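Sequence in, structure out.
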Amino acid sequence: MNQNQKQQAMLQGYIDSPEKVKALYRRTLWIVVLSQIFGGAGLAAGVTVGALLAQDMLGTDQFAGLPVALFTLGSAAAALIIGRLSQRFSRRTGLASGFLAGGIGAIGVVAAALSDNLILLFASLLIYGAGTATNLQARYAGTDLANVKQRGTAISIALVSTTFGAFAGPNMIGVMGRFAESIGIPALAGPFVLAAAAYILAGFVLQIFLRPDPLLVSKAISEHQQGQAGMKDMETLDAAINKKGIVLGAAVMVLTQLIMFAIMTMTPIHMGHYGHNLGDVGLVISIHIAAMYLPSIVTGILVDKLGRIVMATASGVTFMAAGIVAALAPNDSLFVLIVALALLGLGWNFGLISGTTLIVDSTHPSTRAKTQGMVDVLVALAGATGGGFSGMIMAQTSYAVMSLVGGVLALTLIPVVFWSAKKNV
């Protein structure tokens, strides 16, 4: 029996046994959880010290948002590639490749800091963005074998596991900085040493353990059910795809990413202007990232129970509250900044899980990974736009004005969501 015949026999085993599918669903979630713990640690490095490293190397605040824009732009290109690799080959191939590329990019950032080479820094940040894209796309792997009532919860499990690494990462700034200096590397590049190891480990976990591949099993089951129903391929595909649902899911995620990245990117710079040290910055960002991911398990249940529309609306309201609190925060108040950034993370969490679930609901397994990759391109570009322009906006106005504008912009989610509800999305 050749390799292709073995794969067909394996897939047939899952087609014939719903119990095997349930067991594989649970196993897939555990593997995604493990990879996301490492991936979260890799993600946190760029978010926490990327702007500070650029500020140090460029000698100005105005372009401090550039690192976030670059690695987010890199994540846009990577999202498209990962989605296509996943669709053509497997989730395992796409996700493992993305994490390994992110690790290589992190190594490049360290080399750029050592050589004080801005061109290498910018190029490496673009490649590092592949890890960010993969970290987000891994959430889809958990939904491949989930039914409609499990999808929000499956996404939430993937995201909440990111919390462990993402929360630890910023709090290791001091430790990694001292370690980096002890081996002759600039302190601000230290977290990228951690990121390189974390991303590469995440890639190996997926490459070795994500077998059988959940997307391949999902496609095989869908094709079998389609054949059993006696329907033509295109008729089935058209019925399974809800274009309005895809548009709404994309709109929710794009807007939340834009606002979150703009405010988050400039918070460390704002804090530095008013005497807060790296420890304070690490604390604020770590709580922000925890708020982005830790509530996921509850959010996923709410998305499944209350509905996608309700939680997308809650995202807009929470973002508005975050913008107001950040705008009114006294410059020397660490506590109020923590509250603002926690609300910012929570609003992003509501938007990402409700938007992602809408995308999964509205796509068919035969094109799902490709569509998910294309949507994540838009999400990444929104993050790049928010991160890239945030420094310029703050330089021309203030942190308070930028935060308030972000909060007001978030309210546009509400009419969009209600318009879609009237269209029966």
